Amino acid sequence: MAGELVFMMGNFRAVFPADRRYAANHTWARTESGGAVRFGLSAYAARLLQEVYFLEWSMDAGATVREKDEIGAIESAKANAALYAPMAGIIARFNDAAMADPSIINKDGYGDGWLFEMSGDASGTMDAPAYVAHLEASWAKAQALLKGQLR
Amino acid sequence: MKKLTVVISESPGKDPRKRELEANILAALVGQPDVAVSVVPHLYDLNEDHAGALFLRSVNGPLLVLAWLYPRGIHWTLDRLGVKGRVGQTQLKRASDEDDKNDGGKDDKPRLGAANAPARTIWSLDFQDGDTAEAHVQEIIRVAAQVKAAVKLSAAEAVPVAISSPPIQNLKSKIGNPPARRWYPVIDYSRCANCMECVDFCLFGVYGVDDAGRILVESADNCRKGCPACSRVCPENAIVFPMHRTPALAGAPGTKPGDLKLDLSQLFGAPSALDLADKERDAELVKDGREAVGPPKRQPCCDLRPKDALDKLMDALDGERL
């Protein structure tokens, strides 16, 4: 384990392992031994969603996507969100275990709770310190957005 | 005897399943003693001087309109045509609607409210809220019974003032020919706070202001087909495009704050509504041979309070049972 970084969301400690990279849409990315890039939700995204109970993909494995294309949707007890491609490429496969029981995203989001694997160029992603800096820079805006919805 | 006037607004297309549902409901209502039924072309496409609009305006008693639009879209399209009244409560709900709360203003901000709305009630029914003709017919009969009971209650003061106008045509014939398709916004005045954001935003001159300073859709047909951008910039979600494919823009029920879950899509990479609105407007300007204007300088949407208050937000989320 190459250590981890922490970002405080209020009193919540969101932890980001430094052994992988992160996309601006709050997914982590790690290149697997076969060359595929595996993506999952960062602790930041999981904390915002909280208990995830529904996950669906709007395409089949093998689909070619552009960065920011809508690829699916996720729902928790408290929130809905569309999911967007973190990079351009081909979605090679989805994690069947997360489809079958999305709560694994909360239990083991950096491990067995991964979402999908892609082939493509992941060089646009950030390392952990850059991602935490991104969170720090955008935290006020994110809260304003949430607060606007809670008002 | 006061009858409920029921107006069936036909589907704009020729979908045989829709036409069949319309025909079955019509057939079941024609024999009902407390109901006078008429058919008009697709309500949203009617001009103010279309025979169907003239007929609707001639009805001054209780009215129920059945159309292929969300009830909120029906009510404010009618209002625009000069067919005004109070919102009648209906009991047909689409299976996916989890709540039927009145979704008016979310705070104490003053709302414009409908201008010159008479005391009569207008019920709006969406064809899509019931799979079968029976479900709709039952609901219409329930409303008709309610109207009849209300008339009996007020029989003591029975001066026949607000009696509905007699049907002015053969029951089964449709009033007027199908008009050309239209595209324009309607304003939900129960939400509108008269902030004028839409007047400033729309560069096609759709919006205007009446003598009393109230916002109105002045030149509806200046609107660019398919463009819902002004609806996205409206801070009160008061602009309805009844034919837009996105339910929230077409007047779908259930958008009262607190009834909805948080939508985190924007945090997960979706374009914001305002960005989308600017893009949509630019696309229409370019199609029109004009220059794109890009995003305007906007005030930040929310003032940020001191950090310690912000930090409580995430913990407050825990307490919310949304």
Gyration radius of chain A, to the nearest Å?
A: 15 Å
Count of helix runs of chain A: 4
Q: Numbering strands along the chain, what is their spatial order in the largest sheet of chain A?
A: 7-10-11-5-4-3-12
- The CATH architecture of the largest domain in chain B can be given as 3-Layer(aba) Sandwich
Can you count the beta strands of chain A?
Answer: 12
Mean pLDDT of chain B: 82
Largest sheet data of chain B: 5 strands, parallel
Give the rounded overall mean pLDDT of chain A. Answer: 91
Largest sheet of chain A: 7 strands, antiparallel
The helix-strand sequence of chain A is EEEEEHEEEEEHHEEH
Largest interface: pair, residues per side: A-B, 37 and 27 residues
Could you describe the 3D structure shown?
The complex is a heterodimer of chains A (151) and B (322). By secondary structure, chain A is of the alpha+beta class. Chain A is 26% helix and 38% strand. In chain A, a hairpin with a 5-residue loop joins strand 4 and strand 5 (37-41). Chain A is globular, with a radius of gyration of 15 Å. By secondary structure, chain B is of the alpha/beta class. Chain B is 29% helix and 11% strand. Chain B is built from eight helices and ten strands. In chain B, helix 1 (16-30) packs parallel to helix 4. The longest helix of chain B is centred in the middle third of the chain and has 21 residues, at 133-153. Chain B starts with a strand and ends with a helix. Chains A and B meet through helix 1, strand 8, strand 9 and helix 4 of A and strand 10 and helix 8 of B. Strand 9 of chain A pairs parallel with strand 10 of chain B.
Q: Quick recap of the structure?
A:
The complex is a heterodimer of chains A (151) and B (322). With 151 residues, chain A is α+β, with helices and mostly antiparallel strands.
What is the secondary structure topology, with strand pairs?
The complex is a heterodimer of chains A (151) and B (322).
Chain A: E1 4-9, E2 12-17, E3 21-23, E4 27-31, E5 37-41, H1 43-49, E6 52-57, E7 64-65, E8 70-76, E9 79-84, E10 89-94, H2 96-100, H3 104-107, E11 116-119, E12 126-127, H4 128-150
Antiparallel strand pairs in A: 1-2, 3-4, 3-12, 4-5, 5-11, 6-8, 7-10, 8-9, 10-11
Chain B: E1 4-9, H1 16-30, E2 35-40, H2 51-58, E3 63-67, H3 71-80, E4 86-87, E5 121-126, H4 133-153, E6 186-187, H5 197-201, E7 207-209, E8 215-217, H6 229-233, E9 239-240, E10 262-263, H7 273-287, H8 307-319
Helix pairs in contact in B: 1-4
